[in-house]
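Reviewers of the previous submission asked for a worked example of the structure-prediction workflow described in the proposal, so we include one complete record here. The input consisted solely of the amino acid sequence. No template or homolog information was supplied to the procedure at any stage.
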Amino acid sequence: MTTAQTPSLRLEEFLLLPETKPASEFIDSQIYQKPMPQGKHSRLQLKFCNAVNQVAETPKVALAFPELRCTFGGRSIVPDATVFVWERIPFEADGEVPNVFKIYPDWTVEILSPDQRATKVISNILHSLRHGTQLGWLIAPEDRLILAFIPGQQPIELTDDDALPIPKFLKLDLTVEQVFGWLKVAQ
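From that input alone, the workflow returned the following structure tokens.
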């Protein structure tokens, strides 16, 4: 993430600014622009959201979103993927998904880009956990490992055929090997 060279803002002022590409986040009165997603990042993000939505959307258990701005606890962040339990999604009166989510996700996933600082990403995961998120993953494609963050526990380092922790509301079995297997595409 890079810091924008702007004076300190209030959250309300930040939310009035136009969106940037890639997305900018508001953390501790500063604006940080996320790095542009690259191939591995994009593929993992897509496959993760598809895997969750395949088992959770039709039975109305949860929904996964890529790059969804979540504003809560004094921050406005854009995790690489978020999952929300169905009952917590602030649907509009007509049943459509809203544009604005002023709530924490139930599950947050960050995919580390080669030029991204892990500390900023981990800070956002920890912020989410402090505000009610049940699970956070930090996926590190270059290292082929996933760190799982569970409230009240030390991070868990997972590799190879380790089973990944999944929130209790979701029936999904994944291993680290399966997640990184998503990077291979039949040719």
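The domain at 36-181 is CATH 3.90.1570.10 (tt1808, chain A). We consider this example representative of the routine output the project will generate in years two and three.
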